[in-house]
């Protein structure tokens, strides 16, 4: 198994480490946190006495205890931490979006190439078998595609904190927050993987007083159809996502956390499409990323990097279109 270091001790990091160890893809070796107490609490969850702890990033990245680092810090920290990892010869798995803007992405990609290491953006849902069912359906019926509506809206547990003037990271331009750069990434990945790079991007966003988007409607224009993306962190929606094929429709319950797929025929009869769904949605991602690194699979890596490059470009286009400026933009 590949030795794993982690940055971030939140629920998503725990889920990834559980997936990594359950699938025997990675073995947790070192934990970084700003406080030793948090690092120890996280390591203790996995009952691993040989896991080492770090509170200093320079010491963490200089360590030979791990070959791959998983980064799940606030968005604005992804670039500098991933860059430091790459410069220390580490392979990187970084939560999406991997960078705050396309300039950071281009620099990270160039450095990774020079250092001959992998930088993998953790779009875990496109690795799941249930998403691949959707992709296969689209491929078989590509000539009939006539548009899509992708929806991912969930009331954030941190929005109440925001309303209470606590200014959490996810609603701050300092930390590259907002709905688009959180839940919206899933839907943009769906569109890019299924349909490719759009010709034009327009984002009609509900801007909060902090300067980030609380929700919004994103339109991606392709040659013969549009993909409409509805995203939000300030309200709940139960609207399914749909891909249109003229009189027929493919339905799935979420643009991000897909658990059910259905197909409607020309007579509007709806049938379920059987699909596998793991209890841990990161299982497939952990297995595939470990395989890419172990086998030095440059072909798959280049395809994933292409997706990531397009997604990050679309995100920035949409953000600029809506007038959302991050602190990271001003630092360039």
Task: Give the SSE layout.
Layout: E1 2-7, H1 11-22, E2 26-32, H2 36-44, E3 52-54, H3 57-62, E4 68-71, H4 75-87, E5 91-95, H5 102-115, E6 119-122, H6 129-140, E7 147-153, H7 159-163, H8 184-195, E8 200-207, E9 213-221, E10 226-232, E11 241-245, E12 248-252, E13 261-264, E14 270-273, H9 283-295, H10 298-322, H11 327-330
Helix pairs in contact: 1-9, 4-5, 5-10, 8-10
Arrangement of strands in the largest sheet? 8-9-10-7-11-12-13-14
Number of extended strands: 14
**Biggest β-sheet description:** 8 strands, mixed
End-to-end Cα distance: 38 Å
- The string of secondary-structure elements, in order, is EHEHEHEHEHEHEHHEEEEEEEHHH
- For the record, the CATH architecture of the largest domain stands as 2-Layer Sandwich
What structural category arises from helix and sheet content?
A: alpha/beta
How many domains in all?
Answer: 2
- Number of helix segments? 11
CATH level-four homologous superfamily name of the largest domain: Dihydrodipicolinate Reductase, domain 2
Residues in helices, as a percent range? 25-40%
User: What would you report as the Rg, rounded to the nearest angstrom?
Assistant: 20 Å
CATH class of the largest domain: Alpha Beta
CATH fold descriptor of the largest domain: Dihydrodipicolinate Reductase, domain 2
The mean pLDDT is 96
Shape: globular
Strand content: 15-25%
List the uncertain runs. none
